[in-house]
């Protein structure tokens, strides 16, 4: 019996991903968890969901781990997404929220916490999942799929804030640096601590949405200039990158 690779993430992982920018596009190509499982000679379970945040990624993996014999699990891989996303359940169905832009980044935010808190919470999830897998002798590889707090087409408000005043950017980088878990998240997290200014790395800007030496965007691995999600070649690239770094 082959062991099972269990992956979770957002739309960059979702097996049933469709693009709103190109509604007639067939996106049914194999996604990176399937491709990586083939390389590792494993079966796979893909829990990725479009719009999901880190709370869902953590919870979906933990519930799947709990339901299986640890000896059957070959590898657990969270593809972490943006910290500012919020996940809740309503009548046992996951809801992925887009908090109001004028509230999310305010220090007086009532319902979601400010973005610094969301970054802190995500780091807690990273460390917690690592330690749970370690305690159960389950192999885990973690990585940051999208930038933890910036540079997303879907979060242009935050991007504008960061670009207009790098005080916010630096404060959020400092939030990562000041985390009590900074040095406790180990080398099984590829690219930790995720920010290039701290020597970290994420898949979106490092592998898929790349630029040449003149700063011109290379769309080879993206759906189009309108949609920066990975295309079929992009998912192959992600799987190859992970395989080479495992």
Overall pLDDT level: 90
The CATH superfamily bears the name SGNH hydrolase
The CATH architecture comes to 3-Layer(aba) Sandwich
CATH topology descriptor: Rossmann fold
The main β sheet shows up as:
5 strands, parallel
* Number of distinct beta strands: 7
Using the CA coordinates, give the radius of gyration. 17 Å
Overall SS class? alpha/beta
H/E element order:
EHEHEEEHHEHHEHH
Strand fraction: 5-15%
- Binned, the helix content reads 25-40%
Q: Tell me the domain tally.
A: 1
Number of helices: 8
Spatial order of strands in the largest sheet:
2-1-3-6-7
Q: Could you give the distance between the termini?
A: 22 Å
- What's the CATH first level? Alpha Beta
Low-confidence stretches: 102-108
Question: How would the global form be characterised?
Answer: globular
